């Protein structure tokens, strides 16, 4: 039905462009949170995987952060 419409391909390209923008706006802050918590930044990419992202957020919320261990020794 949409293949006869002149904007059919533009909508498809716009969808992927929008998904890329959203992914960038989500991954960058999570990447920074992982780094500040003492985990490798690439773990922020896990936020893009639907069920893994929920488990990953719980992991970040309740895990002992390696960066926090360094601060406890200095206090």
CA gyration radius, whole angstroms: 19 Å
Question: How do the helices and strands follow one another from N- to C-terminus?
Answer: HHH
β-sheet strand percentage: under 5%
Helix content: 55-70%
Number of strands: 0
Silhouette: elongated
Transmembrane segments: 12-31, 43-65
Organism: Pseudazoarcus pumilus
Protein name: DUF805 domain-containing protein
Keywords: Membrane, Transmembrane, Transmembrane helix
Question: What would your notes on this structure say?
Answer:
The chain has 75 residues and is mainly alpha-helical. The chain has one domain (8-74). The chain is 69% helix and 0% strand. It has three helices and no strands. The longest helix is centred in the N-terminal third of the chain and has 30 residues, at 8-37. The model has no long low-confidence stretch (mean pLDDT 84).
């Amino acid at each position: 039905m949409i293949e006869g419409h002149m904007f059919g391909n533009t909508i498809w390209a716009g969808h992927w462009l929008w998904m890329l923008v959203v992914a960038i706006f989500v991954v960058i802050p999570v990447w920074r949170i992982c780094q500040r918590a003492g985990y490798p930044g690439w773990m922020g990419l896990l936020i893009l995987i639907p069920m893994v992202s929920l488990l990953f957020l719980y992991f970040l919320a309740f895990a002992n952060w390696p960066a926090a261990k360094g601060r406890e020794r200095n206090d």
